[in-house]
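Query form — protein ABC transporter substrate-binding protein

QUESTION: What is the three-dimensional structure of this chain?
INPUT:
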Amino acid sequence: MFYRASLQAAAVLASLSLLAGCGLLSDSGSKVEQKIVVGTTSEPSTLDPAAAWDNSWELMRNVFQTLVSFPTGSTSPEPDAAEWCKFTDTTSTSYRCKIRAGLKFSNGDKLDAEAVKYSIDRITEIKFKGGPVGMLGSLDRVETKGDDIVVFHLTKPDATFPFILATPAMSLVAPGDYSRLKIRTDGKITGSGPYLLDSYKPGDRAELVKNPDYKGFADRKNDAVTIRYFKESAPVVAALRKNRIDAIYRGLTAEEVVSLEDNQDKDSNLQIVETVGADIRFLVFNPKDPAAGNVAVRRAIAQLVDRDALVAKVYQGTAEPLYSMVPKGIAGHTTSFFDAYGDPDRGKAKQILAKAGITKPVELTFWFTTDRYGSSTAPEFAELKRQLESSGLFRITLKSKPWKTFQEGFTRGEYPVFGRGWFPDFPDPDNFIAPFVGKESITGMPYLKDEISKELLPQTRKESDRGAVSKQFERAQQILVDDVRLLPLWQGKLYVASGEDIGGGERALDPQTVMQMWELYRKASW
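ANSWER: The structure tokens for ABC transporter substrate-binding protein are given below.
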């Protein structure tokens, strides 16, 4: 997603000390209250869903409900606050949900169809800058039918709409405690999620306690969670090692992940599980630049980049090579760039340039941001420079700026080549194709490709069975390969490290890579 905070290696680590005493707790929990302390560098920027399109989702998933959500192991939205949801037409333009009976907010107010309508309408009415209103571009209006039915009328077919409703940005709020015209800023939350926000101190901690009135899909394995916020990763790792916190998620560098992996050999109480993440990194080429605008130059770079060396040297294996804009683990993933270019080959790159009449080394400037994607970004671009210049076919100048000025620069079209990252809003191939094409491409430069925007994507959005549209997404990815306006480099990995006395770490991340705190629990202590 465009505004979400970035990470070098997304990670969740749990290394929990045993409680004093013997045999107090069972594997599935016990009558003794279970409390977990989690550390993170992923502090929320807001507590109001109408303003949240960033790492604030981490907290919101645990204290709010959405109509549908992603239980662990599910790659499609399933009911949460809703009893059921479905498209009621054949063109995916009318989406209807029945609200689960007996729901109420933490202030005691009823959670009914009107509350759902209010929650979604205020997002579109407030239109918070940098907020999630852009996700509702296909929404025409919200209609209620009685107390328990809500209908979303769309302006055009959009089979991805249920995925959007499953994001924490679409969390349901109590109308009496949230203004229709402005963001709530009192540091409190009125939701209906698995936990209640007992207290919140910005920059320090959030105290969550089990919501006794919760009705939804979450099977809570603990009774309370303290989330402690850290500015940097080193202090949170130190706190973990000293048992001052029980778990870490978000914010570890590749070096720290490797260090903790190595520690497994020395400390039998620490184990790490690796899974595939969905965040990606890629290069963007400016079509108006004299050099980068030449497709032969772009194809020669695609022929030279050694992704294996990049992830091995810079990320020490905490990422993996990516050969399409749709990452591994997402339906429709292909290896289209590898199919087109194979292994890095200087001879083939030289031929590509020669056919275009380019016989001298191509001079290009590569730009990257210094403060958004972590400390490994500079070494990553140094490695790209080394690879391209070692071929003798390119001369690369590296330049960088802080994110704010970097963003201003690429939206004005100032950079020939620059690096970007993408954190998905939802686990569907649409979210890895649509944001990059059209007049409003998130690259800051229009990428007009009618076959994708006017034919392939509209076709896929008519089909609620996402497995039935793989051919369209394969074709879209092939178009991106032919143009090489975007060059995928790598996708991140997720790590779960835990002590032998902790369970649930392998289930704690949903398909949006958002932390589900309720999955963590202490095993038996002897």
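ADDITIONAL NOTE: The first helix runs from residue 57 to 63.
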